[in-house]
Write a sequence for this structure.
């Protein structure tokens, strides 16, 4: 295959993509879950000789779409969305064609400089002060790991990078039980250990109790442990919990600890000024992450981390051997020093295209619609006999359940086997519940309200 062939097949792929998205409503949302079915259709050994693109294309259309859970389906209400607006898809095609490696400024100046401007745009869009700057990671998991590694090294006066942790005091990290499992993973990978991730009790609103946080920090210091930082939750994955930012950040600051805010899903909603009350005080944080690939239409992967002062993170993650220097440009920004990987894709391009193609007001309208439709469908589901709303809408996420766990599990299986909508489960207060989150980029009110119809129909069986 050469570039002339690529031109032909790119046009054919564009036509296929158009038809695929146009026909998504006619497909079941979730793939048929038969383990090994896809793999069994692929040869056990790689080809020794070239194969025709016609054969490759035919196999793709025959094998792949039936094995995909359709994340761009307008009735995908599971997990959180991984949206891909048409403008973002176009930008990704161009980024793929350019195939730049943006590890340092000189390897592709546009990759770095467009990213710098996009971080300014997004900080303004969600109402952060001008002092915040930022960078793009692949996912919030990596951003949170970067923040935790920075907390660790700052607490150890950067001795861990050279000496390791074997002689260090016992490190302690604080978060609520509503934070994402990526926080647990960061504690493990950073050498802090699961046992040293302190899950601080929450109140009746599922917010971290500031007094309990202060008490945990004081008790650990009295025991000879070394607290390193606090991770706060803004729109938790399970049921959408928000910590009280101002109060908890105040406790952390009084204790001399940095804070990182995980707003992976809900951060996108902060382009709407009326929702910023949910994370009031966030401007006092040291690090904030949110994923434009969840609710702003920027195709996965695209996680944005804002930093009040990037210096500590660059000191932690930066490593500049001579072959990565740019002569005469020692102070220029090289984003690989802000993140874990050295290699960097041109992720900022899809942000640039998406923000311009829809504008902040167009994106706000979508998010406001999703929140309103979630409240509306939640009210309808509450009227279904045998169904109870467990947690009311937090933005566009709510949960419900049947009278007992077995019925709840059975209902969820029927819903997803039916195929018209797709929902997932979580555990809340020790109880199995069904999550519904409205946020797919192209969903309509009719798509959302169909969920109440499907649930009512299947709950009666």
């Amino acid at each position: 295959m050469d570039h002339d062939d690529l031109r032909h097949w790119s046009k054919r792929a564009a036509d296929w993509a158009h038809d695929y998205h146009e026909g998504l409503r006619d497909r079941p949302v979730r793939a048929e879950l038969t383990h090994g079915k896809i793999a069994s259709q692929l040869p056990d050994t790689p080809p020794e000789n070239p194969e025709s693109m016609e054969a490759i294309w035919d196999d793709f259309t025959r094998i792949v779409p039936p094995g995909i859970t359709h994340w761009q389906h307008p009735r995908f209400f599971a997990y959180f969305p991984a949206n891909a607006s048409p403008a973002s898809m176009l930008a990704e095609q161009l980024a793929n064609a350019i195939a730049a490696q943006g590890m340092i400024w000189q390897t592709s100046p546009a990759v770095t400089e467009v990213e710098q401007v996009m971080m300014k745009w997004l900080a303004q869009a969600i109402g952060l002060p001008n002092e915040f700057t930022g960078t793009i990671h692949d996912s919030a998991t990596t951003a949170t790991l970067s923040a935790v590694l920075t907390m660790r090294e700052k607490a150890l006066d950067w001795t861990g990078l050279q000496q390791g942790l074997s002689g260090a005091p016992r490190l302690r990290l604080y978060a609520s039980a509503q934070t994402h499992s990526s926080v647990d993973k960061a504690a493990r990978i950073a050498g802090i250990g699961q046992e040293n991730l302190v899950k601080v009790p929450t109140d009746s609103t599922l917010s971290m109790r500031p007094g309990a946080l202060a008490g945990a920090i004081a008790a650990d210091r009295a025991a000879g442990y070394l607290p390193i930082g606090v991770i706060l939750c803004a729109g938790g994955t399970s049921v959408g919990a928000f910590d009280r930012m101002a109060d908890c950040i105040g406790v952390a600051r009084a204790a001399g600890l940095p804070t990182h805010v995980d707003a992976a899903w809900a951060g996108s909603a902060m382009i709407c000024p009326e929702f910023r009350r949910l994370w009031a005080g966030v401007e006092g944080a040291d690090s904030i992450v949110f994923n434009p690939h969840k609710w702003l239409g920027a195709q996965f992967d695209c996680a944005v981390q804002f930093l009040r002062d990037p210096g500590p993170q660059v000191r932690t993650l930066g490593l500049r051997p001579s072959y990565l220097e740019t002569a005469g440009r020692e102070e220029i920004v090289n984003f690989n020093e802000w993140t874990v990987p050295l290699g960097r894709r041109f992720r900022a391009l899809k942000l640039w295209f998406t923000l311009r193609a829809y504008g902040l007001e167009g994106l706000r309208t979508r998010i406001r619609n999703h929140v309103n439709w979630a409240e509306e469908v939640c009210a309808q589901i509450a009227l279904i006999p045998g169904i109870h709303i467990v947690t009311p809408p937090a933005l566009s996420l709510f949960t419900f359940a049947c009278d007992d766990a077995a019925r709840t599990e059975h209902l969820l299986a029927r819903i997803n086997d039916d195929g018209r909508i797709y929902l997932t489960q979580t555990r809340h207060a020790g109880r199995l519940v069904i999550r519904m989150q409205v946020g797919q980029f192209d969903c309509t009110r009719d798509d959302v309200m169909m969920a109440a119809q499907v649930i009512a129909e299947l709950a009666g069986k």
